[in-house]
Amino acid sequence: MSDKFNASEHMEKVEEAKDETLEKIKSAYKKLGLLPADETSAESKSSETGFDEGASRELIEELKRLEELYRYEKAGIGYPTDVELPESLGLQKIEYVAPTDEEITETARSELRAEYEKLENGAEEKYLKAESKLEEELEKNRIKEQNELEKTRSEAESAQKSLTESMVLQGLVNSTIYDMGSESIRRKYASESAKISADYDAEYNSIRSELDLKRLEYDNALAEYNLSYAADLRSEVIKLHAEEEKRLKEINEYNRNVTEREAEYREERQKLLEEMYLSRSEAILEAAKAEQEYEREYGVSYEKQTEYVRRFETAKNFYSAYTPEQAGSMMEESEGYLRLLLGDEKFTELVRWNYTERNG
Questions:
Q1: Cα–Cα–Cα angle for 323, 324, 325, nearest 5°?
Q2: pLDDT digits (tens, 9 = 90+) for 202-217
Q3: DSSP state of 38
Q4: For residue 19, how far is the Cα from the chain centroid?
Q5: Which of 59, 95, 197, 242 is the most buried (most CB within 10 A)?
């Protein structure tokens, strides 16, 4: 809904696109020699071949198309799959139903929601990153605590072992001295273990306090975003109402011009297509005639021989739908075109195929 609609600019762009399409087609034809440089002469030119398409018209048109396609491929230019201009500009009148107040509000909400979701996601990402880092610190401290406790326990066990070995050698393993020494080791171990745990508990509490602070910052940010969102939503609804009024005015203006523009385009399109067809058909045959004269004197290139084979198969498929007698009569009637577009050799082969192979 927020996109700006400008009827006059849209019409100008359509006209520019149409003119550009036509010029590209003309330029490609001129490069291939399929359109005369002086386009005004196209209508005045008529075929000087003296050939008759007759009942083979459908085949002749297909062979002309293959000739045109061959020249495009030879020149390394993409062949236009649809030479004709579109039947219309596509400028149908716009059937427009104005949105309700509820729909406008929902549109405003949708447009703003994306922005605020981005802010909320950013705040969440920041919090989760801090949380992950603090949780990682907690885990590292837990590991360090366990390592220090394990070290203290190991030292106590080692001291107890040394005491026992000493008392055994002295025969005092069951003495009060041994008991007092063992108790001293136990108390030292308990004291050191308690100090380690207390130190790490303090560290854990500090990390958890920082984690709680990050959570509070995150919650406060969400609350602030919600307040800003409500205020921006009211402003956006007002703006969209104004845009909607302007849109309705422009659409009405656009619809008033559609019928006239479409009528003008159809008239111009028909004239252009007629000119293009006359120019293309004549130029294709003239170019083929010039190339055939060259081939008769200098020979047919391998590339063109391959092309003639393709056309020969097309002609065979076409005439296969008729009896040899019917096909022979059609070939005789259209001999000029067939020789021009199939080449003398392939035309002769086509006639031989029709009267010998088909009757064999």
A1: 90
A2: 888 888 888 888 888 8
A3: S
A4: 27
A5: 59
Distances (CA, A) of 299 to 66, 306, 336: 20, 14, 19
- In the structure, what pLDDT confidence band is assigned to residue 318 with cuts at 50, 70 and 90? very high
In 10 A of CB 4, how many CB atoms? 9
* Structure token pair of residue 359: 């009757």
CA–CA separation, 314 vs 98, rounded Å?
Answer: 57
pLDDT at residue 26 is higher than 70: no
Instruction: Check: CB of residue 89 under 8 Å from CB of residue 261.
Output: yes
- CA–CA separation, 312 vs 230, rounded Å? 76
pTM of the model: 0.41
Residue 237, token pair as written in the block: 């609804």
Question: Do the Cβ atoms of 311 and 341 come closer than 8 Å?
Answer: yes
Q: State the residue for tokens 């293009």.
A: 276
Kind and range of the H or E element at 347? helix 344-352
State the virtual CA torsion across 113, 119, 120, 121 in degrees, nearest 10: 100
Q: How far apart are CA 339 and CA 260, in angstroms?
A: 48
Q: Is the torsion defined by CA of 260, 265, 271, 274 positive or negative?
A: negative
Mean pLDDT of 18-45: 56
Please write the tens of the pLDDT for every residue from 76-131: 655 555 455 677 777 778 888 888 888 888 888 888 888 888 887 888 888 888 88
Q: Which residues contact 60 (CB under 8 A, 6 or more apart)?
A: 53, 334, 337, 338, 341
